[in-house]
């Protein structure tokens, strides 16, 4: 006589205790397989720092970026570190 016969179980009748509902909420509302369930993005949280302005700046407020120029020859094609006049 083995343990399974003592408990009155057969090999195919065993179930794990986690197979059933684990909480009263799960017992009251069983899970339903639904094809139309679409997960949504979580709500955005506020971040640190100053809030970025969302308004569009006018043409008067926008300034073109200043181009770097060579301090040796005033050319905008290179900087003083690689100036051909300095290398001479």
From TrEMBL:
Biased composition (Basic and acidic residues): 9-19
Biased composition annotated in UniProt, kind: Basic residues: 47-57
Region: Disordered, residue numbers: 1-57
Stated name of the protein: Protein FAR1-RELATED SEQUENCE
């Amino acid at each position: 006589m083995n343990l399974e016969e003592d408990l009155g179980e057969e090999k195919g009748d065993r179930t794990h205790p986690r197979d059933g509902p684990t909480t009263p909420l799960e017992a009251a509302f069983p899970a339903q397989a639904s094809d139309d369930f679409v997960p949504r993005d979580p709500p955005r949280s506020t971040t640190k720092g100053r809030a970025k302005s969302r308004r569009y700046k006018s043409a008067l407020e926008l300034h073109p970026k200043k181009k770097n120029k060579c301090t040796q020859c005033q050319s905008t094609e290179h900087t003083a570190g690689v100036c051909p006049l300095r290398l001479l």
